[in-house]
Recover the amino acids of this structure.
């Protein structure tokens, strides 16, 4: 019997805002104003891909750097346009260690208690920011299969560094497009602009100050609080077989799967990529039953979906656990991935 699904427009706000950023990065290992789009002079295909694309994959971990960045996120809350604009300072030692510290909030206006909460949340989310929020190439071959890349004729200067400007657009659909300013000598992205399907700018990240020689003495680098355990390394996973989507958006493949223990609850996390963006699948595992105990089962499933900034978040509530899908993909694709795992 197929589960009966109820699609509710109730946002899983608490999970999305507090739980998911922690789970998406716990113990996970991966490998100025923006200008208007100018004329493009070159379309890159597989054989002529510029060498800095490969350097972008691990540049944030591999290259020592630091500086002040301005983050702008433009979105709608209850149908009304609003913006989050703040500065942060990033320090990376070139050996995989990093720290992202909030510095100042320009918008919206915050009281002191609100500002303190915001800063604590930002510190807790810095793993997500460093590994997933900041744009970079994740897999060159898959990226070139899924995205069209154009090199802009004129270089850009960001925080005193001459950068190559590239335009990125998905080959399938028009959900989002990007313009990146890349330091070709290192692969670091010094400015990133993200547009929605209408061409409206929805997010920017810009280095206002930048150095390749950051001060490292006394830096309290970020430490993951909840290490994950690779799924394939676990001899036995208590409970039912781990859930896995049977349907993925075109171009995505799984790159990691692990189990995270958080506050006495186990979560299975699967991460997928299309070479540039990520898709996340999480399963809250049911609590282990006592030996000989009988558990009541229900075929009812409630599905809730929400938009959290650029991400669509879908949650399926079912007996004994729940599933989440998080990604910058169309609502129909989020729901298809979620339902395929039920």
């Amino acid at each position: 019997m197929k589960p009966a699904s109820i699609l509710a427009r109730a946002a899983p706000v608490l999970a999305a805002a507090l739980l998911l950023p922690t789970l998406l990065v716990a113990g996970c290992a991966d490998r100025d104003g923006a200008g208007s789009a100018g004329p493009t002079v070159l379309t890159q295909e597989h054989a002529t891909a510029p060498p800095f694309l490969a350097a972008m994959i691990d540049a944030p971990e591999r290259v020592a750097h630091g500086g002040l960045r301005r983050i702008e996120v433009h979105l709608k809350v209850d149908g009304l346009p609003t913006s989050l604009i703040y500065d942060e300072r990033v320090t990376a030692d070139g050996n995989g260690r990093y720290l992202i510290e909030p510095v100042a909030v320009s918008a919206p206006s915050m009281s002191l208690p609100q500002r303190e909460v915001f800063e604590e949340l930002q510190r807790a989310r810095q793993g997500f920011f460093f590994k997933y929020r900041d744009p970079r190439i994740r897999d060159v071959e898959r990226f070139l299969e899924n995205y069209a890349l154009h090199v802009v004729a004129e270089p850009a200067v960001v925080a005193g560094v001459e950068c190559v400007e590239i335009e990125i657009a998905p080959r399938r659909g028009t959900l989002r497009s990007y313009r990146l300013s890349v330091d070709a000598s290192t692969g670091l992205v010094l400015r990133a602009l993200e547009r929605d399907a209408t061409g409206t700018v929805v997010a920017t990240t810009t280095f206002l100050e930048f150095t390749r020689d950051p001060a490292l003495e006394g830096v309290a680098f970020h430490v993951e609080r909840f290490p994950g355990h690779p799924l394939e390394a676990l001899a036995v996973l208590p409970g039912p077989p781990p859930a896995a989507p049977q349907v993925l958006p075109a171009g995505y493949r799984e790159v990691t799967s692990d189990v995270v223990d958080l506050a006495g609850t186990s979560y299975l996390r699967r991460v997928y990529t299309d070479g540039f963006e990520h898709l996340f699948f999480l399963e809250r595992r049911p609590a282990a039953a006592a030996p000989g105990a009988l558990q009541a089962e229900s075929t009812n499933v409630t599905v809730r979906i929400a938009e959290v900034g650029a991400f669509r978040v879908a949650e399926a509530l079912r007996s004994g656990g729940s599933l989440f899908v998080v990604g910058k993909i169309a609502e129909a694709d989020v729901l298809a991935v979620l339902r395929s795992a039920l």
User: Anything to note?
Assistant: The first helix runs from residue 13 to 25. The first strand starts at residue 4 and ends at 8.
